[in-house]
Design goal:
With about 500 residues, the protein is of the alpha+beta class. Helix content is about 50%, strand content about 20%. The strands form two sheets. Strands 7, 8, 9, 10, 11, 12 and 13 form a seven-stranded mixed sheet that branches. It has a six-stranded antiparallel sheet with strand order 2-1-6-5-4-3. The longest helix has about 60 residues, at about 235-300. It is rod-shaped, with a radius of gyration of 59 Å.
C-alpha cells in the first residue's frame, strides 16, 4: 500500500526531531557532567594560580580584600593555611582567630585525624588521588568524614609556605545536572508535541499543491480540460502548476484540432468515395457509348457511309469528353496533393481580363452571351496566369450553361483590402442555399432547383477551389435577386 506524501513528510520530520532529542539527551547525560567538572577544575586552577601571587605578609585587611576580589563570582570556598592552621576561610567570619606572630613547626600537608579541634577546615581524607593541572597546582576529590559529602579540592603552596585550598561540594553540581536533564526532558517533550503539530500542519500545507497538481494531471489524463490550477506558492510548485496549465491548454487545442481534422477526414473520405463513385459513373457513360458504337462499326452491319460517319463523330466527341475529364481529374489530384507547382507572376488584371474576353469571343458569340466588363482602376496582381485563365474560362462556361433567356454576363474587378476580387455574374435562377458550399465538390449532384447538363457540376469548380487554396486566396459564390455571382481573389503585388 502506497503511503501518501503528507504522511511520509510528517513521519520524516518527527523522526528527525526525535533523533535530535535523543542525541541531545544522551549528550547531556554523558557529557554535561565531565564538561561541568572540567570547567570547574579550570576555573579553580585559574583562581589558585592568581591567589598564589598574593603577598600574605602585608596588612591582613589588604590581602583579604585582594583574595576576595580574586575569588568573587565563584561558588567554591577559599581556605588559606599556614603550618596546618587555617588563617582564612571565605565561608567563615574573618577574625575568629589572630594570625600568630610565631608559627609552630609546619605540619604535614595532609592533616591527621587528631588535628586540632579548633581548626575549622576538615574536608580532606588521607586517600585522595591528585592530578596536576598546572605546575604546582593539584586538583582532587575528597569526602568530608563528618557529612560524607564529596568535594572538589584544588590546592597549591606559595613560596612563603602558605597553602591555598579551594573547595567545592559536588552535591550541588550533581543536583544541577539532574535539574538540567529534567528540564531538557520537559523541553524535549514540549518541543516534540509542538513539532508534531507543526509537522502535521507543514506537511499538509506543503503537500496540498502537490495533491492539486496530481489531481489536475489525472483530470487531464481523462481528457477533462475544465478548470485551471491556481497555486500561489512563489516557488517551483507554482511554476510547475503553470506548466501543467499550459500543457492542458496545448493538449486541449491539439485534441480539438485532431477532432476537427478527424471530422474533416470523415467528410473527405465520404467525399472521396462519392467522387470515385461519380467519376466511375462519368467515365462509364462515354466509354459505354464509344464501345457501343465501335462494336456496331466493327460488326459490319453499318454499311451506310452517312451512318458510319455519324458513329465515328460520336466516338470522337465522346473520346474528347473522356480525355478532358481525365485531364481535369489529373489536374485536381495534382493540385490537392501539392504535386502541381503554380508559377505566380505579375499580371495587369484589367488588361488580362480583356485579353480573355477577346480570346473567348467565338465561344461567347456561339452561346449568345452579352458580356460586359466593369473594371476598377488598373492593379498588378500575383497569380498563375494559366490557372487564372482556367478559372475565368470555367466561370464563363458556367454562366453560359445556367444563364436565363437574357443571356447577360457581367465581369468585374473590385479592390479589396490586400487583393483584387474578380467576379463573373450571370442572370438566371439562384443556387439552392443548401448547395452553395457543396458545389465546390467534385461531381456534386445538383437538385431540381438548378438545371444542368447531365445532372452534374463536373470538376470545374473543384479545380477552382484547389487552385485558390494552393495560392492561399479566397473564392466563393453569391446569390442575387436576378442571378448568381462567382468570384475569386488575386493578391496585389507590393
Amino acid at each position: 500500500m502506497k503511503k501518501s506524501i503528507t504522511k511520509r513528510m510528517f513521519l520524516g520530520i518527527i523522526s528527525v526531531v526525535i533523533v535530535f532529542a535523543v542525541i541531545l539527551m544522551i549528550a547531556n547525560t554523558l557529557l554535561l557532567s565531565p564538561l561541568y567538572y572540567r570547567s570547574l577544575e579550570n576555573s579553580m586552577t585559574e583562581v589558585a594560580s592568581r591567589l598564589v601571587t598574593v603577598d600574605f605578609s602585608t596588612d591582613r585587611t589588604t590581602w583579604i580584600n585582594e583574595v576576595s576580589d580574586i575569588s568573587s563570582g565563584n561558588a567554591f570556598d577559599v581556605v588559606i593555611r599556614k603550618n596546618g592552621i587555617t588563617v582564612f576561610s571565605s565561608s567563615m567570619d574573618i577574625g575568629l582567630r589572630e594570625f600568630p606572630e610565631e608559627l609552630e613547626e609546619p605540619v604535614s600537608f595532609m592533616p591527621d585525624k587528631d588535628q586540632r579541634p579548633n581548626d575549622p577546615f576538615r574536608p580532606m581524607t588521607g586517600e585522595m588521588e591528585w592530578k596536576e593541572t598546572v605546575e604546582g597546582i593539584l586538583v582532587g576529590y575528597s569526602e568530608d568524614p563528618r557529612t560524607d559529602s564529596e568535594f572538589i579540592v584544588c590546592t597549591t603552596t606559595n613560596d612563603d609556605g602558605y597553602t591555598i585550598l579551594l573547595t567545592q561540594p559536588v552535591e550541588p553540581i550533581d543536583a544541577s545536572i539532574v535539574q538540567s536533564n529534567l528540564l531538557l526532558i520537559i523541553v524535549t517533550v514540549a518541543m516534540l508535541i509542538v513539532s508534531i503539530l507543526f509537522a502535521f500542519v507543514f506537511a499538509k500545507g506543503f503537500t496540498k499543491p502537490i495533491k492539486e497538481i496530481k489531481g489536475r494531471v489525472e483530470q487531464i489524463s481523462n481528457l477533462d480540460f475544465s478548470g485551471t490550477l491556481k497555486i500561489d506558492t512563489g516557488d517551483e510548485l507554482e511554476s510547475l502548476s503553470g506548466d501543467v496549465n499550459l500543457l492542458a491548454a496545448k493538449l486541449k487545442d491539439a485534441l480539438d484540432e485532431l477532432q476537427e481534422k478527424n471530422k474533416q477526414l470523415e467528410k473527405d473520405i465520404i467525399a472521396q468515395k462519392r467522387f470515385i463513385s461519380n467519376a466511375s459513373h462519368e467515365l462509364r457513360t462515354p466509354l459505354s457509348l464509344i464501345k457501343g458504337y465501335a462494336d456496331e462499326l466493327n460488326s459490319g452491319y453499318i454499311r451506310n457511309e452517312a451512318s458510319r460517319e455519324q458513329y465515328l463523330g460520336i466516338i470522337s466527341e465522346e473520346s474528347t469528353k473522356l480525355n478532358r475529364l481525365l485531364n481535369e481529374m489529373l489536374d485536381l489530384s495534382r493540385l490537392e496533393s501539392g504535386r502541381m507547382k503554380l508559377e505566380e507572376e505579375d499580371i495587369q488584371i484589367n488588361d488580362f481580363i480583356m485579353t480573355i474576353i477577346e480570346k473567348y469571343a467565338g465561344f461567347i458569340k456561339e452561346k449568345g452571351l452579352s458580356v460586359e466588363f466593369n473594371g476598377c482602376e488598373e492593379h498588378v496582381v500575383k497569380h498563375d496566369s494559366m490557372r487564372m485563365e482556367q478559372i475565368l474560362a470555367n466561370f464563363i462556361s458556367n454562366a453560359a450553361k445556367y444563364s436565363d433567356s437574357r443571356r447577360e454576363v457581367i465581369i468585374s474587378t473590385k479592390l479589396m483590402d490586400e487583393a483584387v476580387r474578380i467576379s463573373v455574374f450571370n442572370t438566371g435562377q439562384a443556387i439552392d442555399e443548401d448547395s452553395l458550399d457543396r458545389i465546390w465538390e467534385g461531381f456534386f449532384k445538383a437538385d431540381n432547383s438548378r438545371t444542368r447538363e447531365e445532372g452534374s457540376y463536373g470538376l470545374g469548380l473543384s479545380i477552382v477551389r484547389a487552385i485558390q487554396e494552393t495560392v492561399g486566396q479566397s473564392y466563393g459564390v453569391l446569390n442575387h435577386d436576378d442571378g448568381v455571382e462567382f468570384w475569386f481573389e488575386a493578391g496585389i503585388h507590393e
